[in-house]
Design a protein that fits this description.
Helices cover 53% and strands 0% of the residues. The protein is built from eight helices and no strands. The chain is elongated, with a radius of gyration of 19 Å. The termini are far apart.
Length: 173
């Protein structure tokens, strides 16, 4: 396989990573934070609004080439998604009538501020029989206070309440 074919495949994968499923004509819409909401017609972002798509290190889709990967100009950190793109995807999902998917994108947007090791710790803490109600509420408080992750904090508190009802807390087994 030649480098042009590989680069084309990488661009295609990145394009699909930055978009939802939907097929309508493009309507110009300002990016998130400008007061307007993205619509289904803005999908796929990489094709219809590539100027909106930036990585957490401010790289554009044009910067994400195989040549730049090979010469070290693009690192794994350059491929991290931004909360802005996740919120745009939430707007598109909501416009498509997929409110649950939109909420997942909004939670994901909040989690971009949380260090990876902390996300893994939270994941492990949410497994049945791993945490007490107090420990889960402490995680929720930390998410809210340290990272302004109110949606995620509410999710953890809801899990704590359900774990009490379903006897899934540490010591219940």
């Amino acid at each position: 396989m030649n480098s042009e074919a590989i680069e084309s495949m990488v661009r295609d994968v990145l394009s699909k990573m930055n978009s939802l499923q939907g097929q309508t004509a493009a309507t110009p819409t300002p990016p998130a934070g400008s007061g307007s909401k993205a619509k289904v017609s803005d999908y796929p972002l990489a094709n219809k609004h590539p100027e909106w798509v930036k990585t957490s290190t401010n790289k554009t889709l044009d910067d994400l080439t195989l040549a730049n990967v090979l010469n070290g100009s693009v690192t794994p950190q350059d491929l991290r998604i931004t909360p802005e793109i996740l919120r745009i995807q939430a707007d598109i999902a909501r416009d498509a009538g997929r409110d649950r998917l939109a909420m997942n994108f909004e939670r994901a947007a909040e989690l971009t501020a949380v260090p990876d090791d902390k996300v893994l710790d939270i994941y492990n803490a949410l497994r049945p029989f791993r945490s007490s109600r107090e420990e889960l509420n402490a995680i929720a408080d930390d998410l809210e206070q340290s990272y302004h992750a109110r949606i995620c904090a509410a999710f953890i508190r809801e899990a704590a309440t359900l774990y009490v009802q379903r006897k899934k807390l540490k010591g219940d087994d």
